[in-house]
């Protein structure tokens, strides 16, 4: 290949070149692997030297411009007429896991409520229930930064945004576009650190869901990255009122398109299991939330007792398979557990009512086992009690 970069003017030179490539090809097949990889790397360097503006994926380490900030974004739009936030235990669990695993610089709550308004005052002084209190607390280590935003009522194409979920879709994309960082829905639970993905050099990262689309409930982007800019623009044109026309459909379209130029590093698409291993189907919600016939972790519980840890060694599943029931999922390759709730589709999961502290601490479902380590930390710090309700 590198022979083509040198000016060849005579027939003789062409013949020589042809002979040389045959010789090189033979060398390639007969030399040991070490030597061939050195031979291949030489023309690569020659070619990229002509295009200094687009570094190859194996080029220099990413510059700070390419690092996705360690900032988390949540969105909660209070419906007209609502007096209070309606946060539940599961929302606090989601927020706390993001804070615990990522230690973000800032956690934003983008909302339509005024920072000095009575809704936040009531949440903060505990009169709106325990979970609202914890989420807005200034004493738990994280400091939720409330960002009051105008909530759009119409898309750029003039169509009215018919429901809160769609208004939230527009708010979340603009927030991440303007500030950069990680967006997660409230039913997404961080299972491990995202730093390697934020620092991968890609300016946007998102993951696929059941059926192959990119899910818009979890995404990472640098400020004003190309993907988020195209999505923010495209969603206004695409909006029809369809459930995911402006969200999943647009991020899938622009995200996939951007992958074709890997040197630009505008988009990294993760496999489904990385961010959204389950789904909204009855089968998947049963798999995730269904209570199994195994002894409860709270079987011998007495008030205030220490709860066990379940650290899993690397080889444990091969060395002692008898310790792991067939139904128990290995969460090793999941960064974010998007726990699609069965409530919304009015499907009844056997043995499951709500995500309560007791449901998680009993460890009788795949969901409970995934989030137990965070719930145990909360229990150890006295932030939750086993008999706390899921709401209030
Ligand atoms: C909590 O805040 C609300 C709104 O400001 C106020 O009306 C209420 O009296 C406060 N309650 C307590 C116990 O401080
Ligand atoms: C649950 O497991 C126990 C012991 O393994 C067994 O005796 C019992 O029948 C099981 N219950 C159900 C509902 O499967
Ligand atoms: C409960 O106590 C019994 C008897 O001491 C013990 O065998 C069992 O492992 C304990 N179970 C749990 C979940 O702590």
TrEMBL record:
What InterPro entries does this protein's entry cite?
A: GlycoTrfase_DXD_sugar-bd_CS (IPR007577), Nucleotide-diphossugar_trans (IPR029044)
Q: Does the keyword Iron apply?
A: no
Compositionally biased region (Pro residues) = 54-64
Q: Which Pfam families match?
A: Gly_transf_sug
Residues annotated as region Disordered? 46-66
Transmembrane spans: 12-31
Top-level taxonomic group: Eukaryota
Q: Name one GO biological process term.
A: carbohydrate derivative metabolic process
UniProt keywords, alphabetically: Membrane, Transmembrane, Transmembrane helix
Q: Which family is annotated?
A: Belongs to the glycosyltransferase 32 family.
Q: What is this protein called?
A: Glycosyl transferase
